[in-house]
Amino acid sequence: MIDYKNNKPFVEGVSIEEIANNNSTPFYVYSQSKISEAYKHLNNILKSEIFYAVKANSNQAIIKLMSNLGAGADVVSLGELKRAIKAGVNPKKIIFEGIGKTKNDIAYAIEQNIRLINIESIDELKRINEVALSQNKKVDVGIRLNPNIDAQTIDKISTGKKTDKFGIDANKLDNIFQVLEVSTNINPIGISCHVGSQIFNINVFSKIFQKMKNNAQIFLDRGYEIKYIDLGGGLGVKYKKDEEILNLQLIKNEMDKYFNDTPYKLSFEPGRYLVANAGILLTSVIAIKNNGGINFLITDAGMHSLIRPSLYDAYHEIEAIEKNKNQLTDYTVAGPICESSDILAKKISLPKQKVGNLIVIKDTGAYGKVMASNYNSRGLPIEILVNNDVFLIIHKPLNTEEFINQDSIPDWLN
Questions:
Q1: pTM for the full model?
Q2: Residue 203, number of CB atoms within 10 A of its CB
Q3: 72-75 and 94-96 beta bridge pairing
Q4: 371 Cβ partners below 8 Å, 6+ apart?
Q5: Computed over its alpha carbons, how large is the radius of gyration of the chain?
Q6: CA 48 to chain centre
Q7: What's the sign of the alpha-carbon dihedral 381, 386, 390, 394?
Q8: Could you tell me if 297 and 289 are in contact, meaning their C-beta atoms sit under 8 angstroms apart?
Q9: Is 193 a catalytic residue?
Q10: What is the pLDDT of residue 6?
């Protein structure tokens, strides 16, 4: 994503140093062209409907870009649903997932006339029917099934095993049919699944396709008109130089094996795949120290700016803007947060650094800013979108004084 021109780093046609001169670090930068390339590549090969998983990066500019490219929106909360609508996504291209929908959430989704509410439990199925009945409407729904497939990824991002909290056990279809038969205001027209993130094993996709086709046939045989099958997301993203790039054509080959001449539309709900490699996090060195023989590079970005390394032990390549390779040093890059887990990378080789230098944390377009916090009462990073030779701040959070002023001290404490 970063190109060097005369030894100066650029995102598309914009100088990173120019952005840094005008904005305090840490901040996120996204490349519009990289996002567009990822979407077009995916769309051209899979030839299925794409619903962008908003949770990966919920900035409205990103949602709007996805919509302009042709994607719908896959949302998992009322807030994400409102973001998608405000960003101009056609309600008929919005799918509402998530295991914690309240009656208020459901009522709003029904009022907006979105394409589908994907049901995650039999209890939720009953709740949606109640809300639909109160509005005197018949609501199109999908049934999210838990196919009990191991995505062969880390446990914290696994969503499709029978012990995970998501979806309805695919072995309990008879229970679903019993409730559907008495749910007069529910119109089941789709099924969906999602088994996890960072899937590279093609056999996992093959198992998903086979099980979902079999489940769809059960619904069809029971007389339900299934119009849509959502095959989930989880498409693996390359974070390390030695990792292979996911071969989408192999996934398409497996799709063609199972879904030749079927009566329903297929869709995917990728998030990370579309935006992860299109984002970087810029941070500055604020201190350098040696403890116990370890060279610590302390940066103003930390787990409050990017929690993935602390939460998942996730790897992000880190690059120094200073390119003097004659003085390489092993550093552990740590943030300023008062937690021992606030480590962005351990023992990586970088040119010898000094306070004030810029550091780039790569592949942070997904699950970066959306998971950031004000922990330790630190500010949130801004977000910047680059398009060719122009850039714009697409999110400017409250400054420290503004978010502190959101607190209220009761009179009785004064």
A1: 0.94
A2: 10
A3: parallel
A4: 306, 307, 308, 311
A5: 23
A6: 19
A7: negative
A8: no
A9: no
A10: 87
Strand locations in 147-261, DSSP E? Answer: 168-169, 186-192, 228-230
What the block records as the tokens of 164 is 């995970």
Reduced to 3 states (helix: H, G, I; strand: E, B; else coil), residue 47 is coil
Nearest to 111 by CA among 126, 91, 93: 91
Give me the phi and psi of 241, to 5 degrees please: -60, -35
Handedness of CA 334, 340, 345, 350 (dihedral sign): positive
From the list 332, 247, 343, 344, the residue with the least C-alpha distance to 297 is 332
SS3 of 321-379: CCCCHHHEEEEEEECCCCCCCCEEEEEEEEECCCCCCEEEEECCCCCCHHHCCCHHHCC
What's the pLDDT band for 139 if we cut at 50, 70, 90?
A: very high
For residue 151, list its beta bridge partners.
none
Residue 26's alpha-carbon distances to 20, 129, 283, 335, in angstroms, are 9, 46, 5, 11
Element (H, E) at 268: strand 265-268
Q: Distance between CA atoms of 158 and 12, rounded to whole angstroms?
A: 35
Cis peptide, bond prior to residue 26, ω within 30 of zero: yes
Structure tokens at 68: 């302009």
User: Annotated catalytic residue: which of 182, 338, 409, 413?
Assistant: 338
Write out pLDDT tens, residues 388-404.
999 999 999 999 999 99
User: Which SS3 state, helix, strand or coil, does residue 155 take?
Assistant: helix
CB-based contacts of 370: which residues, under 8 Å, 6+ apart?
A: 55, 56, 57, 58
Q: CB neighbours of 157 closer than 8 A, spacing ≥ 6? A: 151, 196, 197, 198, 312
The length of the chain is 414
Q: Tell me the DSSP string of 281-334.
A: EEEEEEEEEEETTEEEEEES--TTT--HHHHH-----EEES---GGGEEEEEEE
